[in-house]
Model the fold of this input.
Amino acid sequence: MTEPRRSARLLVRRWWPLALAVPLGAAAGAGYAVVAHPSYAADSYVIVVSENPGESATAVNFAQAYGRLAGRPQVLAAAAAETGHSRSELEALVHGTTSPDAPMIEITGTGADPQEAVLTADAVARSLVAFANGSTKETGVRLVPLAAAAEPERPTTPSGRLDVAVGGAAGVLIGALVMMTRRRSDSAAGPAAGAAPVPTAPRPRTAEPGAEPVADPGPEPRPAAGTEVTAEVTAASGTGDTAARAGKAGPAADAAPAESENRTKTVAGSGR
Done:
């Protein structure tokens, strides 16, 4: 097998969960974009005006407070009768947004078609204005409609590109989790399957207390082939040489005492 083909097979084995999950996630997002019902959104604007000139900070603070009340039941009571929805339904279709440096409230209404979205946003805006202006003497501010809602040209949801991107991102996450799980299982099974048995060395005998450790001399070396025969021949030859030397020295040893005795007798005779 060639090297490029081997590398390609290795990449496929390692990255196949990610390569499979990303297209499936993108396809699921595209399918949701086709099947999901469209939803439209329209924005209506209300501004907060202070009764006392020069108190812009007060108007901004009240705009923050009324923006939080835009989706509350006490404000949605009048709008529910106008739109034909219940207050619980309007709570899911309407929300208010405010600015930290401007006394303006943005009321966003959603619906299944552009006309319903416009009707919902404008109805809630009018209901909020009526609710806030009922206590102008106590608060010192009043609400004025700034801009009515306009019909949206395209739905806000579903969005084909956004849904495909979200599906692809979900596929990346799922594929990465599968790859991490496979790597952990492989790393856990690898050492258990490929580990070779380690030979156990014999434990040395424990020395007596106070005694010096004695090194193990190991097995006694065996003599090389022919050594025993050579030793026997050498021993036999040494014994023969010793006997021969003793045989040769025998007569000389016997003659030496006789010669010494003759010399003694001669000396003694001459002395007489």
